[in-house]
Amino acid sequence: MVTSIQILFIIIAGITLGCALMVVTSRNLVHSALWLVAALFGVAIVFAILQAGFLAVVQVVIYIGAIAVLIIFAIMLTRRIAQDIGPRFNENWAWALAVALVAFVALGWMLASQPVAHTPLVPLDTRVDPVVLLGAALVSKYMLPFELASVLLLAALIGAIVVAWEKK
Amino acid sequence: MSDPINLIATWLRELLVSWGLAPGLITFIMTLLGVLAVAIFVLVIDIFLVWVERKVVARFQDRLGPNRLGPFGLIQPFADVIKLLIKEDITPNGADKVVYNIAPILALATVLILWAVIPLSSTMLGADLNVGILFFVAAGAIGTMGILMAGWASNNKYALLGAFRTVAQVVSYEVPMVIVLLVPVILARSMSIGDIVKGQTIPYIVMAPVAAFIFLISAIAELGRAPFDMVEAESEIVAGFHIEYSGMKFGMFYAGELLHALTMGALFASFFLGGWRGPWAETYPLLGVVYLLAKAFFLYWVIMWIKYSLPRIRIDHMLNFNWKFLTPLALVAMMVTAIMDKVLAQSGTVFYALGMLAANIVIIWVTFYILSTYAHGERQRVAEPKPLATPELGKAPKS
User: Fold this and answer.
1) Which of A34, B232, B347, B358 has most Cβ atoms within 10 angstroms of its Cβ?
2) Do A69 and B164 touch (CB under 8 A)?
3) Is the CB of residue B209 less than 8 Å from the CB of residue B134?
4) Residue B374, Cβ neighbours under 10 Å: how many?
5) ipTM metric
6) Distance from the Cα of residue B68 to its chain's centroid
7) Nearest Cα to A39, choosing from A60, A53, A69?
8) Domain segments of chain B: what residues?
9) What digits encode the pLDDT tens for the residues A94-135?
10) Which residue among B141, B148, B163 sits closest to A60, beta carbon to beta carbon?
11) What pTM does this model have?
């Protein structure tokens, strides 16, 4: 029995994979970046299908709004790489394909062997706001990892300031 | 007859049920019709906005504006639209055709999509997302992408410069905007725009004037309107990212910009002015739409007022203003609101609002004190004699 959500998932996942393939095969670096945006957007839609609205929106804000824009900006600011420069493959493509396949099979096997993979999708309880639960969990149960991540980001910020500091 | 829109929706749903359609299909059809209704409503307002913009700018510049076609020139926007539609559609040589054509669609669509989360009245709300505010930020991010794509695909150096400036401006002004949007979230304890409007028995502009001020400024910067129109600065880079676009493709950028300004007004109204709230808006939901549009148009007028009164600021000043003034101020406003919220947690609504207002007044006072000290130092620095005008000019300069 294939439900409409499964059909939707297969279509979206197919489009996402296609976009991801275009990222590595397209002849133009800016096109690659734009295909990457499409692939990231596809992942956001998958989150939305799983009723993880917060993750979907954050995926768009962070990956498209910040990271992809940064990538495109870096490409545009670098001389002579924003044009067609021929095929993207060198002689090692077969090795890369083999490694990618092995990684995919290993990850897929690991996920499929988990008991969680065989439970059917349960609709979320509409009475509780998942964002509220997430927020509460971040400052209680996952306090230490959350703070560690914040400290890491702060260190990166300070590092960026120190690197850009003009010595007088 | 207090709620005609939902009455029609219920009638239509019952009609579809009586035809014996599957419930999933009925939901799909009803959603599609809702999306179409909101989009058409907003786009019709958009046509009208062209007239509003031209008429108001004329008034600011002591002119009459369009007054020949129809009463008060009301048919002028239709003439504009027809002109745009029948213009030749040019794609420049060397342009990246697909990207070039997707960009204007993105520019308009990312603005239209925002109306899905703006509550039009107590019963009319497209999607009550629990992450409405982040949805707004995400739509803005895709809009930035549209401008970048337009600038790059045009194969024009001015367009590319416009795209660079967009990234510098829009991305940096997003920082104080997102920080400051946490203030209504703290006050309403929800990220859903519907809940934020419902929480405003006292409009949040009373409790958070600093946040409202920062949101308005960063909204104008996000729009790329004067004094932040570095993105299209006519006198510097001709028209920026949309220089190569003509006909309806340009029209979509233009319509997107006008509608974006009104949408920002509607969002400002929802976050800080109580959205659809007003006398009798609960009993007559249609009145809520009128209130929301009135507030949105007032904000639209404020944005135009600022646009046509102030000259463009220099790009380095613009960035300094953002990173050295707005961002720290936004952080302070957010932290003070969070602390005051805990301090005032036990007090009543009026007392809570007064406490927040007092905290904001202290922030404003301290900000003005720091600014006047800084201005004093700057004036002294500027008043110092310049080394260029010294009499030793004839000597060879020491490396």
Assistant:
1) A34
2) no
3) no
4) 12
5) 0.79
6) 31
7) A60
8) 1-86, 90-373
9) 888 899 899 999 998 998 888 877 777 777 777 777 888 888
10) B141
11) 0.85
